[in-house]
Structures are given as C-alpha cells and as structure tokens.
Amino acid sequence: MNALMQALTKISPDITELTNIPVPQYGLREVLVRVRSAALCGTDLHILNWNQWAQGAGIKLPVIMGHECCGDVVAVGSEVKNIEVGDKVVAETHIPCGACYQCQNGEQHICNNLKMFSIHMDGCFAEYTVIPAACIRKIPREISYDVGAVMEPLGTALRGVNATQVGGSRVVIIGCGPIGLFAVAAAAALGAAQIVALDISDLRLAAAIKMGADITLNAVDKNTDQIVLKATGGYGADVIIEASGSPEGLKQSFRLLRKGGRVALIGLPDKPVELDLVKDVVFKEAKIIGIHGREMFKTWTQMESLLVSGKLVVDPVITHILPLTQWREGIELAKSGQACKVIYHP
Ligand SMILES: NC(=O)c1ccc[n+]([C@@H]2O[C@H](COP(=O)([O-])OP(=O)(O)OC[C@H]3O[C@@H](n4cnc5c(N)ncnc54)[C@H](O)[C@@H]3O)[C@@H](O)[C@H]2O)c1
Ligand SMILES: [Zn+2]
Ligand SMILES: [Zn+2]
C-alpha cells in the first residue's frame, strides 16, 4: 500500500507534528490495523515533553505516538495465526520475546527482554498502525471502539483489584486518575463491600462517585486517615489500591491498611520513596503486590467477560472525543486536569 495517512509524530525532542506519511509496511508476524479510536495516556505527555524518563526510555525518533487503541484488522502477515481481516482488535502494549525465563513460565507481561508498543516501535495516533501478533488481542464486537481503546489501562486496574481479592472487602483506592477510576469500577464489579476513593482533586472525586465509590475523600484534608479508620471499624482497609504514584499516596496506603491486609501498588513515583518497613509492612504482615500491566492474556479474558456482561461499566471515564487533527486541544485538556480520558478518532 503506498497511500498516505495522517500520523501524530514525535519528530525531534522539540517538534511534534501531524504528518502525512505512507501507510506502514507490516512484517510476517505483524498485523496492519485501521485505528478507529486511540486514547491519550500520561506516558504520551512524558514523550511529548521529552522529559528525563522519555530521554532514557530507548525511544528512537521519529516515532508515531500513542499506545492505547482499538481498530479493525485490514491485513495480516503470513505467519500470523488466529487473527483475520475484519477482526476488532486492541494492542496490549507489552511485547514479550517468547523465549526468556518469564515468557516460558507464564509471565510474558514482565518478559526480561520486554519491548513496548509506541516506545520501541511506532504507535497508534495514526490512521493505520502495525501491531505485532505477540501483543494483539481480538475483542468481542459488543465492546465499542472507544471502550476498546481504554482496555489497556483498564486491564492494569482490573488486575490490581483482582489480585487483592476485593470480594466482600473494604477497599480504599488512592488516586482517581483514569487508573484509579477504573479500579473503582473494577472493585464494584468484583463485589467489594465498601469502596473509599481518595484524590486531591474534587473533580476526580466526583467522577469516582459515578464509577461506584461509596465514600470519597480529599486527601488534602487532615482528617482523612481518621475518617477511613472510622469507616473500616477502626481496623483499616482490607485492601488498598495505590494509583496516585505520589510519595504521600504511597505512605498513606500503608497507614490505612489493616493488619494482614493486601496492597496493590500500581502508581509509579518518579523517585525512591522511604517507608517504615517494620511498622507498616513486617509487623502489619502487609501483603504487597506490584502490578506491571496485564497478565497475558488472562486479564483480557476476565475484562472482556465483565465488559460484555455489563457488570464493568467504564464509559464515564471517557470525557472527550476529538478528531486527531485536534490533538493539541486533547493535550491541553489532559494537562488542565479538566479531562479524564481523552480519545482521538484518527
Ligand atoms: N504499573 C503499571 O503498569 C502502570 C501503568 C500505567 C500507569 N501507571 C501509573 O499509575 C499511576 C496512575 O495513572 P493515571 O493515568 O491514572 O495517572 P494520573 O496522573 O491521571 O492520576 C493520578 C491521580 O492521583 C491524584 N493524586 C496525586 N497525589 C495524590 C495524593 N497524595 N493522594 C491521592 N491522590 C493523589 C491526582 O490528582 C490524579 O487524579 C501513575 O503513577 C502512572 O504512572 C502504572
Ligand atoms: Zn497508557
Ligand atoms: Zn521474554
């Protein structure tokens, strides 16, 4: 195919532009996808701003930005099995090598040679994208393109909630960005007895109520710890989901956890954080679970079942849908804190 397509390209550290470039070639083990919906993520802002993390992430410029997407398969490499033209698909983002210890032992999502879609190869803020067969997922037709586009961050949240066994438990979710809000919805879907959501933005807390939180608290309020303790019978929460990535949120996670409770750590603080391990972990017998993305593809199977059944509802997190030509407006909305998930239709 020699036709041209629009693509949002990070050309150099200072230049990001909507470019007209040829529709990409696909390899034997790759799939060409017409992108219908693509979601903006915090990582895209880091790459756009070319911050310290982006500079060290192994990105070779120019690169087409964006990794959260859903679309239709238009062509399939000759060695690709189980994916056909016309399938509705999403990109997993984590690209495993298939050969290392992790890959051979059911942990491909934390492969030792892990490559990332839109970091180590072009991404999906474009009319067409190439997705490696190793990280493509065919999804049920009932799931809309826009919900399909947010399944990658949704899966991260769902996995944290699932791993901490929230059924019948009192759950505290710290940070109500997209991941925290998805965690609220997932905790409700998996039968949490009580969901307390914390953020420092009242706008985000209002969204948490829509997603199914029973109590929302502004973490800036000095009484937050006491209120949570009171709401959990004086013992603390059975489960904490840390999705703020802030040092304060991380420290508060362990303060609010009951003895013997379970914590899923999802947020990524940008510096090492000091914790009182004796008090908050050892004597408390805290069960800590680090979450890096989704299990491949166990989390996807569970997520698809919950979405199709209507038990997991995430639409309120999608606050803005724009054509890709309005990409700058989407970035400004995301930066302003007024938007939650911004979606582009290329
Ligand atoms: N582990 C993974 O696989 C994975 C994947 C994607 C994102 N992440 C990380 O997860 C975190 C959440 O992602 P997101 O896209 O929702 O980010 P986000 O920045 O949109 O959300 C973070 C939220 O935390 C709130 N917050 C900040 N300080 C707080 C505090 N002290 N107490 C309570 N809330 C506070 C912010 O107001 C914001 O609403 C980020 O750190 C991100 O880097 C991890
Ligand atoms: Zn993302
Ligand atoms: Zn591997």
TrEMBL record:
SUPFAM superfamilies per the UniProt record, alphabetical: GroES-like, NAD(P)-binding Rossmann-fold domains
Keywords: Metal-binding, Oxidoreductase, Zinc
MF GO annotations: oxidoreductase activity; zinc ion binding
Domain of life where this protein originates: Bacteria
UniProt keyword Zinc present: yes
Cofactor names: Zn(2+)
PROSITE patterns: ADH_ZINC (PS00059)
Pfam families to which the protein is assigned, alphabetical: ADH_N, ADH_zinc_N
UniProt xrefs under SMART domains: PKS_ER
Domain called Enoyl reductase (ER): residue spans: 11-344
The protein, known as: L-threonine 3-dehydrogenase
Lineage: Bacteria, Bacillati, Bacillota, Negativicutes, Selenomonadales
